[in-house]
Amino acid sequence: MPQTTIYSAPPRSPLVPIPAVATRDVARLFGRSAALAGVSLEVERGRMVAFLGPNGAGKTTLLRILATSLRPTFGTAHVDGIDVAERPELVRPRVAYLSHATGLYDELTAAENLRFAATMLRRSNPADAATHALAEVGLEADGARRVRGFSAGMRRRLALGRLLLGAPSLVLLDEPHAALDAEGAALVDRLLDQWRDGGTTVLVATHQADRITRLADGWARLDAGVVVELGGAGVTLPAAAPAPIPEPATATAER
Amino acid sequence: MSGMDAIRTDLGVAWAIARKDALSELRGRQAAGSTLFFAALVLLLFGFALGPDTRRLTEAAPGLLWLAIVFGGLLTVARLHQLETEDGALDELARYPVERRAIYLGKAIAGLGAMLVLGGVLLPVVAILYGIDLLGAAPALVLALVLGSIGFAAVGTFYAGVTVRLRAREVMLPLLMLPVIAPLLLAAVKATAAALGGDPLGELASWLQLLAGYDLVMLLAGAAGYGFLLEE
């Protein structure tokens, strides 16, 4: 993994560790509508943080920016001190992302999909890595089947298996329990524990707050593209960043 | 990483992508089969349109062969990118920590393979329909086919990347691509005609050189620009 770090966020004491994730006023416009309207937060290394909020809150957009799939329209986002827009090629080896879409190839078998991913992630032995990942997600008996015949839950498991092929320092999960049965959901919980125990930073976007907040160290609630509430440990506002905007209900009550 | 290591890594990535695309294409036989059938049908219809005059058919054969290859090739390069639009695969591909030029090269190799299969099927069809002797012209003809296919795959891969996220991609791909491949089409038709006609004017080598130069320029430009197409 490249050792170069480019940290252009405000200077900080060398005694203060660089956060795993730092965003400053991150905004993303799609046409005239803002999916994100200025998100500033920092996540400590090795923490599991949940991004909560209703549909359209901006959770997925934020994860996609951190995964280098989208560029922020305004503001900056850093992973391990590296600007995701300036040096995405240095960020990509550090990040694993499970999106809504599984990104699988229907005409390839499950094992071929993972072998391809392992090759792209430059694993020295893609076949072994794929076999191991299939076993981890309980699909070892289905490795030779084409993905076209898989159920939504099996596709999700296979996509989770792909996350196990790399050695990321940051794992981004978008609605990881979606489409999974009880056994699959337990698998996700086990993987979350595994990552946390291994010191990997995990960000989970979900609107199923109950399940994730039991596992997460901290949480950030987004609404209409801004952070409206932070809680727990591991996620903070950056120094000198504006305070979160009060929730509309609270603001009305105060008036 | 040294220069040689980087090249080796890029080639490994490109080969993995090309292999993946080839497997998908072979297993989704319907699409590949219908492209071949469509291109052969184009040749048959042109043959009917030109009538039974053998001399006229022979003269028109190089141009009609390349038109059929272009029509079939447009469908092929578009489909190789559409594979990536199913269930977010393009985003996933773009997130892998690999060089963008390696992704481009892999897609171009897959496109080249498909183009060569297309050309390999259409050549005998042309020979049968238009009464052309292929055996005498085989080496030069194959060289023209390979060089023309490389150029088409190089340009097609780039423009398929440009249009893959567009709703009107089926219309936009030929609109953007056909003007750019006009020099390639001209050189390929001239080289094929020279090869089939025994090269009486000694112009075959010049057309082949032009094709090789076009291929090189387009491959370099495609590799340099493809990364921007993966950004959203």
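qc> Chain B has one domain: 3-230.
qc> done
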